[in-house]
Amino acid sequence: MPEQPWRNPRPAPRLSEVQPLLRELPPVKWLRAWWPALLWATLIFLMSTDAFSSEHTGSIIQPILRWIYPAITLEQFEIIHHLIRKGAHLAEYFVFTLLLFRGVRGGRSGWRWSWGFLALFIAAVYSALDEIHQSFVASRTASPYDSLLDSTGALAAVVFLFLWIPWRAERSQEAMESSRNLA
Question: Which of 20, 58, 89, 139 could bridge across to 149 with cysteines, CB 3.0–4.6 Å?
Fold first, then answer.
């Protein structure tokens, strides 16, 4: 075959060589880190609709409470219903912030204040936007106190991560050292 300088002398890569590189593409890595937080944000958005208004959740919770405690009065039910709804605010944003931290951290490990603050900031902004969304739903009421409660749940998650990640790393280090001592 005559010399053809314009041709690439390197053969085309095999599929087995290319597949590991495709898994590490930036959009794939980003989606792998962020999909749980995006899914949870969608769930929070859906819970801000009419389907999860106080009237609708009350019609679900009241039969359960009456089954557990048949003599419950209307005043007692309203207090318990209010506490359940506010507890849900704390819990949903606690979980949301854990998932946001996972996304911000990406494939890295450990703890950084910048990751925690960014997750807290995103959760607080999303909380404010969620309350604005609720102001457009006829059966819902927007409340800055609910947004503050959401942000408190997010802050609790950041504090939890700040305490848990170093503790887990220390325990893991101790386990590795003890396994080395046994070997």
Answer: 89
Structural domain including 100 reads 36-46+56-173
Dihedral, CA of residue 110, residue 115, residue 120 and residue 125, to nearest 10: -150
| Residue 18 falls inside a structural domain | no
For the stretch 96-128, pLDDT in tens is 999 999 999 988 888 999 999 999 999 999 999
Q: DSSP for 75-139?
A: HHHHHHHHHHHHHHHHHHHHHHHHHHHHHHHTT--S--HHHHHHHHHHHHHHHHHHHHHHHTSTT
Kindly tell me the sign of the dihedral angle through the C-alpha atoms of 100, 166, 172, 176: positive
Is residue 148 assigned to a domain? yes
Residue 120 included in any domain: yes
Tally the C-alpha atoms within 13 A of residue 37's C-alpha that lie toward its C-beta: 22
For the chain, what is the domain count?
1
* Any domain includes 145: yes
Distance separating alpha carbons of residues 7 and 58, to the nearest angstrom:
73
Higher pLDDT among residues 2 and 17, named by residue: 17
